[in-house]
Amino acid sequence: MKRSLFLRIKCTAAIRMLAYGVPTDACDEHVKSGESTVIECTRNFCEGVIVVFKEEYLRRSSVEDLQRLLLVGEDHGFPGMIGSVDCMHWQWKNCPKAWQGQFTSGHKGTTTFILEAVTRFDDIESGKAPYVDFTVNGRVYNLAYYLADGIYPKWPVFVQSLKLPQGDKGQLFAKQQESCRKDVERAFGVLQARFAIIRQPARMWDLDVLGRSEPNIHARPELRDRAQHIQLKKDLIEHI
Description:
Keywords: Signal
Protein name: Transposase
Radius of gyration: 21 Å
Strand content: 5-15%
Strand order of the largest sheet: 1-6-7
Signal peptide: 1-21
C-alpha cells in the first residue's frame, strides 16, 4: 500500500471518530484498521491540529486582542468585560474505579469532567496579563471579568445574571447579560453539532489524552473577593 494512501486512511479513521462518534472497532468495516490503530490515529490527529493551529487560535491574548475585546464589551454595555464563559459536563465512560469519587457529578449521577469554552485566564492568575482600568458608575476597577451563569462562584472575574430581577434596571441588566452570553452558548451548540464524539460518553482512559488543567486561581485572593463581586454587579446594574 502506498504511504500517502495509508496516511489518508488513518486521517479518515480519526475524522470518523471525531465527527460521527463511531466506536473504534466500527472503523474496521470501512477503513480496515484495528481498534488500537484507530485510537492512536485519533490521538495523533488531534495533536497535529493543535500543533498547526496553536499559534493562531490557542495563543495568549495580546494587548491588541484585549483592547478589541474591551471595546466589544463596552458596546454591549459592560465596561471591563472581555468575553463570556460557559461549560458542559462530558460523561466519562471509562473513568478508572479509583477516580470515580472525585469525578462523579451530583446532579448528573455519573462520572463526568468539564469542557469549558473561554479564553484561559492563566495570565491573569499569574499577574502577567496587563491590568485593565475601567470605570463603572463612577467607581474604578482594574480587573477584567467574564459573563457567566450561576454555576460559577461569586468572584470579581465572573458576573452572573439575576435569578429574580426586580425593577426596570434589574430586568434590563438580566436581559442584557443573558443576551451577551448567547455567543458562547451557540459555540457549544455548534461544537456538539459538528463533533458527535462529545455528545457521547468519552471512551479514553488517560487524563493526559482527555486534557486537564488545574489553574492556580487560589494563589491570588483578590480574584475571590466576594464583596468586590457584589459591588461590581451593583454598579453594572446602575450603569446599564
